[in-house]
Amino acid sequence: MRVFGIDCGTEFTGYGVVDFDQTARIPQLSYVDAGTIRVQKKHTTAQRLHQIHTELSARITLHDPDTVAIEDVFFSANAKSALKLGQVRGVALLAAAQCGRVVAEYAPLSVKSAVVGYGLAAKEQVQFMVMRLLSLAHVPDSPDAADALAIAICHLHTAQTLAHTAGAPR
């Protein structure tokens, strides 16, 4: 199973692709790709959203994931920031839908719990655990890419748990 994770942001949108091979003797996660889409502040909102949509669509098509996992909305005290983030999330959801992918959404606390074991973990803890879980030689280039990988890992862990639960006798 291949998952494309997206960490939406108004300036930096991270993406990460993770495979899970459950046919291996020891099922394991493996890193495929990760990066950050950086938009320029001097561009209009429409231009920035177009850039994010175009780049996400191209990468989803390139990596051909089974599922796209996106971090769910978190509540912000700043309504303007929340609105801008919602626009980026909408563009990410649209890119996934246009590519014909199933979308799963996870709350930030769920992502951190799945990867670190603690819902209020610091960004550095998430980066470290992503590095360990994917057997990377170094921490991903940006916190946004690490968060996107964490979102993909969260989905894989959740899907694996649901599969085991569905097959368990009652």
Care to describe what's here?
The protein is of the alpha/beta class. It is built from 5 helices and 5 strands; from the N terminus they run βββαβαβααα. The protein has helices at residues 45-63, 79-98, 108-115, 123-133, 143-167; strands spanning 2-7, 12-21, 28-38, 67-71, 102-106. The chain is globular, with a radius of gyration of 16 Å.
Give the fraction of residues assigned to helices: 40-55%
Roughly what fraction of the amino acids lie in strands? 15-25%
Nearest-integer average pLDDT: 92
Task: Provide the succession of SSEs.
Answer: EEEHEHEHHH
Amino- and carboxy-terminal Cα gap: 27 Å
Structural class: alpha/beta
Main sheet makeup: 5 strands, mixed
User: Main sheet: which strands, in order across?
Assistant: 3-2-1-4-5
Number of strands: 5
Rg (C-alpha, Å): 16 Å
**Would you identify the regions where 5 or more consecutive residues have pLDDT less than 50?**
none
Shape: globular
Number of helices: 5
What keyword list fits this structure?
single chain; 170 residues; alpha/beta; five-stranded mixed beta sheet; 5 strands; 49% helix; 22% strand; globular
